[in-house]
Specification:
The protein is α/β, with parallel strands linked by helices. The chain has eleven helices and 21 strands. The chain has helices at 7-10, 14-35, 37-46, 67-72, 106-122, 141-153, 165-175, 184-197, 217-227, 340-349, 385-400; strands at residues 86-91, 101-105, 130-133, 156-158, 179-182, 207-211, 230-235, 246-248, 255-257, 262-267, 281-287, 298-304, 306-307, 319-320, 325-326, 331-333, 336-338, 354-365, 368-377, 405-409, 424-426. The chain binds adenosine-5'-diphosphate (ADP) and zinc ion.
Amino acid sequence: MERYFQPEIETMERSAIETHQLEKLKWQVKRVYENVQMYRERMDDAGVKPEDIKSLEDLSKLPFTTKQDLRDYYPFQLLAVPKRDIVRIQASSGTTGKQIVSGYTRADLDQWATGFARQLVAADGDNTSIVQVSYGYGLFTGGLGAHQGAEKVGAMVIPTSSGNTERQIRFMCDLGSTHLCCTPSYAMYLGETVKEMGVKNRLKLKAGIFGAEPWTEEMRKQIEEALGIKAHDVYGLTEIMGPGVSYECRVQQGMHICEDMFIPEIINPDTGEVLPPGSFGELVLSTITKEGQPLLRYRTRDLCTLDYSPCECGRTHVRMKKPAGRTDDMLIIRGVNVFPSQIEEVLLKNSIEVSPNYQIIIDRVNNTDTFDINVELSPKFNGDVESEKKKLETQLRSMLGIGAKVHLLRPKSIVRSEGKAKRVIDNRKLHD
Ligand code: ADP
Ligand code: ZN
């Protein structure tokens, strides 16, 4: 039997979703026009008034919002409520450029908790679950986001935060954690450590909820195997809410976007044109119920597709495919577009010989880009290092369409991150 956190919302008919979205969109557009100078100016420039929003299609008349806007109007100029109504500030992890902040009202925090609660229940959680939150707590939305969601379900929460890995695992065994929430790269690391400690048979884990960074299906398999769990993908971003914007059900064919809170669109990142359903492009989100710092048509820079077909789980909210990468993740090396996820895919196919823990180092020498990839050998590796290196270089060249120099390193020699993995070191910037 499928369980839902809010069946009346999670399984709403499409027509009811659209009616709700239009009503909330009108409400939100009016609020931001009246309360946020940037939106008022942009809408005036575009010649759009709140009353011009008569259907969901009219959404495309509204201007986009970008991460740069959040920087330009830092820290409080995009608030649509008086500052005294803000009860929490979170900040982006600053993976790309200067940090941005987002302010939440009490009602915003409640909605965020609801988004994550839907995820926990979809991962078979309930008030008997023991949820270990190994996302970092603090400005990063992972820790507090998962925490509030699990509390909302009434689970027992263990707020270990990230780090101190052996202690985490001892707690996991002693307290019988049933659900683990952290970044997928930290889950991999926990998996490796569980193996070293030889305690897999003491784990009571059933499911994991992993997000905040891109990960591949191969990585999912490895985590599921290492920890003996079902691994769910969860998506979120500070600007919009934090983890729980969309969440994966047991079917694991994309993450259901909380459509009662957000309207998603897919656009061509180069032209801004809205693409038809099913197209691959940049995800744009409008927050239709958020009070504190509402954003209209926010360009997430995450590349994915939307799937409106019915899901076997019975949920009706649209599913987004796992983001393939970000528009700003893409590296241009010697004129060729390279996504780090492509490298990860190659390494995961060779998981007997190497670990998927890698680092890309790019530099510029004599006006030509150099492209090096440090990869760790797996502890089990006992083949010939030189031929392993050649094999990986050949596979990478055919995947990327450009040559890279592979350096095979001893197991565990690349620093493990407890938060988001840092995969790219681009030294070209130093020469600009
Ligand atoms: P930053 O932009 O500084 O990394 P955030 O911590 O808010 O700040 O990260 C949000 C971003 O993380 C998203 O825009 C997306 O690129 C990435 N992300 C979050 N969850 C996932 C996921 N499940 N799969 C892939 N990428 C994800
Ligand atoms: Zn589903």
